[in-house]
Amino acid sequence: MNEEKFKFRSRMRALTDSSVTALSILATVLVVAPLVAIFVYLVYKGASSLNLDFFTQIPKPVGEAGGGMANAIWGSALLLALASIIGVPVGIGGGIFLAEYGRGTKLANAVRFTADVLNGVPSIVMGVAVYALIVKPHIPFLPFTGHFSGFSGGVALGIMMIPTVCRTTEEMLLMVPHAVREAALGLGVPNWRSVLSITVKTASPGIITGCMLAFARVAGETAPLIFTALGNSFWSSNLNQPIAALPLQIYVYALSPYDDWHRLAWAGALVLIVLIVLAVSLVRYVTSRGVLKGAS
Amino acid sequence: MGVGIEVTNLNAWYGTNHTLQDINLNIPANHATALIGPSGCGKSTFVRCLNRMHETNPIARVTGTVRIGDLDIYVDAKPVEIRRRVGMVFQRPNPFPTMSIYDNVASGLKLNGYSNRRGLDEIVEKSLKNSALWDEVKDDLRKKSGASLSGGQQQRLCIARALAVDPEVLLMDEPASALDPVSTSKIEDLIFQLKSQYTIVIVTHNMQQAARVAEKTGFFLNGRMVEFDSTHKIFTNPSDKRTEDYITGRFG
After folding, report:
1. Which of A157, A203, A138 is nearest to A177 (CA)?
2. Does the domain made of A53-295 have the CATH classification 1.10.3720.10?
3. Are the C-beta atoms of A96 and A169 separated by less than 8 Å?
């Protein structure tokens, strides 16, 4: 009797085990499938239009065949660099404040709430806000204001990066064990030094992941750039002038009535995704090189 | 060289919880002093008051006088200066996970602005030799993370890290309670060697350990120090009935 009961139970357990495993595999497939589908479709539609010209030429006027998106790739790189310069330090600084200095204070709660709301603001609203703040009004003696510019585009993207970076930094810092902080304080290390050199350093893999997430998210943003960077059909590195960006160029080409522009838009989308993946992988590779054997 | 510690009317609180009540105690220089007592009796709080770690908890409060050598630590100096002179080893080994073995040992000096390379090399070697870890790690000093060592090695690494800043007093809060017997005996041997150079205060739950390493022993109960005497006297002929009950295992 007992033995039968035991056999029945272990069969039930095996059944539960395999069904949960099957469910989680199914969930994984459901998550990964759209990603793979998008990528395969992009390669299918866009790869044929990719050639050296795409990376070296600027757009040709309507009616002329060929041309590329070199200026848009370069413009996107500049915009994202500016966005990161604004978004990463402010976001990390805010995260450090939330986790280390402001814990439990009203100010910290207000900052956290603001960051969460900012994270939910639609990107087009961000574009309009930056338009109203620095594109439309010309502020005397302040460069970059009063007209469409790469600078205002970078600002819009940078502000969009802040909440993600800030909240991930906070979460990652809170995960650093209390024992590690105590170890630093016990050595007579001043608190600020312990925060910067020990806590932030211990949490840095997670913080870097947060920055990369924010970066990848804004890299594909089109809406905030419509009101700010505007786009540009020519070579420009001048952040005081309208500047081209890959998502903008894709948007314009995709809405155009010309078949070869459609093909270029597909190619642009493929290039955008590949470049984002490359940038994220590069940062991961560079930052993981210093990691020691056995470090968690 | 170690210095003596003189504690007068020490009281400590966590919020409204009065965890230490009127502690008076003289800890001799260059000896090991053990603190025993049941869990929650205040012995950990007591050692944390000796390097002002107690006050890192925002709800903690402390009154009374602690003199370490000629320094009144709650009056004459900032907490960070005290903690450089009074090293601490915690219950669970807590090496910095992102740092190499070398950097872990050098961390106390580096983070306080000391950057003489050759000086650091010498101090790291000396500290690791002092903590009996040198032979096991000398080939991987910069290659391996401190977190990759075994638990016992990690604890000796933490001792080396504490020694590297050249403290006068070494506080050990149950340093071997998370370790296996072999590692424990290594730590005890170490305490035995180190006490010629440092004043050592060790909190322990293990009474045999107190008997083995310490000349003096204090018994804590419910936030008060019941008895403080030579280890031999505490374990063979305690003056207080409660001490006797505790060491014979009648409670706690």
Report:
1. A203
2. yes
3. yes
Q: What are A1-13's pLDDT values in tens digits?
A: 688 899 999 999 9
- Compute the distance between CA of residue A15 and CA of residue A12 in angstroms, rounded to an integer: 5
Pairing of strands B86-89, B216-221: unpaired
Q: SS3 for A168-204, per residue? A: HHHHHHHHCCHHHHHHHHHCCCCHHHHHHHHHHHHHH
pLDDT digits (tens, 9 = 90+) for B54-113: 998 889 999 999 999 989 999 988 999 999 999 999 999 999 998 999 999 999 999 988
C-alpha A217/C-alpha A223 separation (Å) is 12
C-beta atoms of A292 and B96 within 8 A = no
Domain map (residue ranges) of chain A? 2-49, 53-295
To the nearest whole angstrom, how far is the Cα of B207 from the nearest Cα of chain A? Answer: 26
Nearest to A294 among B108, B112, B144 (CB): B144
**Per-residue pLDDT tens over the stretch A219-236:** 999 999 999 999 998 999
What ipTM, to 2 d.p.?
0.88
Kindly report whether the global pTM for this prediction surpasses the value 0.90: no
What pLDDT shows up at residue A138? Answer: 85
Q: Which two tokens stand for residue A195?
A: 């925060």
